[in-house]
From TrEMBL:
Cited Pfam families: PhaG_MnhG_YufB
Organism expressing this protein natively: Janibacter limosus
The protein's name in its UniProt record: Monovalent cation/H(+) antiporter subunit G
Family recorded in the similarity comment: Belongs to the CPA3 antiporters (TC 2.A.63) subunit G family.
Positions of transmembrane segments: 12-30
Record-linked InterPro entries: PhaG_MnhG_YufB
Record flagged with keyword Glycosyltransferase: no
Superkingdom: Bacteria
PANTHER family: ANTIPORTER SUBUNIT MNHG2-RELATED (PTHR34703:SF1)
Lineage: Bacteria, Bacillati, Actinomycetota, Actinomycetes, Micrococcales
Tagged with keyword Membrane: yes
Keywords assigned by UniProt, alphabetized: Membrane, Transmembrane, Transmembrane helix
Length: 123
């Protein structure tokens, strides 16, 4: 087996694993009960799945221009997915669509209650 065949095989396995992780994340989006669990399913396996798919593509394509482009995509995904999840979680909590009985620890609720009390006591 040559190194090119080994790279092709590793790339194919990586793409397959990435696709399976993306599928697991999509199933989690449909099946999980609340916004926080769905948010987790939308970010963690999707990000890792995309990373594996892009590594598989880099192993199969093997040109510097393509690898550089794929690195830009990885960087954009790594920067935007956590920020998006945080914003979605805050928006879901503020609008009240989160199920409070599923929360184990609620530090954000205490902060919101203090903020409302401070606004209510201001002249």
């Amino acid at each position: 087996m040559t190194w090119q065949e080994a790279c092709d095989l590793a790339g194919a396995i990586s793409i397959l694993l990435g696709a399976v992780l993306a599928l697991v994340g999509a199933i989690g989006l449909v099946r999980l009960p609340d916004i926080f669990a769905r948010m987790h399913a939308a970010t963690k396996p999707q990000t890792l799945g995309l990373l594996l798919i892009l590594v598989g593509l880099a192993l199969n394509v093997r040109t510097w221009a393509s690898v550089a482009t794929l690195l830009i995509v990885v960087g954009a995904q790594a920067l935007t997915a956590p920020v998006t999840a945080h914003i979605l979680g805050r928006a879901g909590y503020r609008t009240g669509i989160s199920e409070d009985d599923l929360l184990h620890h609620d530090e954000l609720g205490e902060a919101y209650r203090r903020m409302e009390q401070d606004e209510g006591s201001a002249p």
